[in-house]
Design brief:
By secondary structure, this protein is of the alpha+beta class. It has six helices and eight strands, in the order E-E-E-E-E-E-H-H-E-E-H-H-H-H.
Length: 233
């Protein structure tokens, strides 16, 4: 994310709240008046997940309640806050549990989907393929949601604590530009390892059946980067 020098706003994350209304499903609060809601009519937010806090105790006007806070970096940092017992939080945890560590390192799209009465569901999409994460609600009433939340939290926070090179993205970053950033990261590690082009091609052919990093998927290039970093350590 580009850092702008000079005077500007305090660099705090923007909180986004989930609520089913007649024409929108999430909103922000005015900085000068935290009782005034600002509707968000867009149904999706795309960015890189940087952390999650589950069963977080928060003081509200109705007393202490438990929330799920999803931290996501887009053109600026956001925190999507929803009730821990809400269908949004539960469908969010379902989807995050399905995603692999490699997929969670890439940008994802978090979308709201209105249900019956006051219910709002969460659907996660791959912003490159436009495919949604398929989840099943079978047996959800008997599920240990606290255990699932801890599992998802450990997976996501482990990824963000691996001291990886940050992916430079903005609101207009394309899939090809993200892939180019990953290629550049692998260039850095290859140079540090002093690998020759022949060594690189030989490994790619043996591991992925491909002779060029340009032919690798984002998941494969991330796996390759992890392998190179392991060799350095």
């Amino acid at each position: 994310m580009e850092v702008k020098l000079g005077f500007g706003a305090v660099p705090k994350p923007q909180y986004v709240f989930v609520s089913k209304e007649s024409d929108h499903c999430w909103y922000m609060l005015m900085l000068s008046d935290d009782t005034r809601q600002i509707p968000i009519y867009d149904k999706a937010l795309t960015g890189v997940i940087t952390g999650i806090e589950v069963n977080k105790k928060v003081d509200t006007s109705d007393g202490e309640t438990e929330k799920t806070d999803l931290h996501i970096l887009a053109e600026k940092p956001y925190v999507i806050r929803s009730g821990s017992e809400s269908y949004f939080s539960k469908s969010l945890l379902f989807s995050l549990d399905v995603l692999t560590s490699e997929q969670l390192r890439n940008p994802v799209t978090i979308a709201v989907r209105p249900g019956e009465k006051t219910i709002v569901f969460c659907t996660i999409y791959n912003p490159v393929t436009y495919r949604s994460v398929d989840v099943s609600w079978d047996g959800h009433k008997e599920l240990d949601w606290q255990a699932l939340g801890q599992k998802v939290s450990l997976k996501i926070n482990r990824i963000t604590n691996l001291n990886q090179e940050p992916i430079q993205i903005s609101a207009n970053t394309t899939a090809s530009e993200i892939h180019a950033v990953l290629i550049a990261q692998s260039d850095t590690y290859l140079a540090q390892l002093k690998w020759t082009p022949e060594q690189g091609r030989e490994y790619l052919q043996q591991k992925y059946g491909k002779r060029s990093r340009l032919q690798l998927t984002d998941t494969e290039i991330l796996d390759f980067i992890d392998y190179l970093k392991l060799q350095l350590t």
